[in-house]
Amino acid sequence: MSEAVDTLDNKGKNGKEGIGEFIAHTREELDKTTFPSSDDVKNTTIIVILNVIFFAVYLFLIDQAWVYIIEGLTWLINKIVGI
Fold first, then answer.
1. Are 36 and 44 a contacting pair, CB within 8 Å?
2. Furthest C-alpha separation in the chain
3. Helix (H, G, I), strand (E, B) or coil at 22
4. Where in the chain are the domains?
């Protein structure tokens, strides 16, 4: 918390930091970041693709089941009404 207050106090006289300070702060923040390895990206991509395929098949089957149920109910109602 004290760092945030301290950085606010270190700004220029008009309350804005210069472009050089902005770039320096940006580089400091980028040095703190980590990026996934190539293997992590490949594994995550495979998981995402498998999940998309699974849910596509699952939703297709659920949709087909509802079509079957609705057509059956429509047939039943038509038989009862006599159409």
1. yes
2. 87
3. helix
4. 1-33, 37-83
Classified as helix, coil or strand, 35 is coil
Per-residue pLDDT of the chain (83 residues; tens, 9 = 90+): 555 555 555 555 566 778 999 999 999 999 999 999 999 999 999 999 999 999 999 999 999 999 999 999 999 999 999 87
Please state whether 15 falls in left (phi above 0), alpha (psi between -120 and 50) or beta: left
Residue 43 CB contacts under 8 Å (≥ 6 apart), including other chains: none
d(CA 47, CA 26): 33
- Provide the whole-model pTM: 0.57
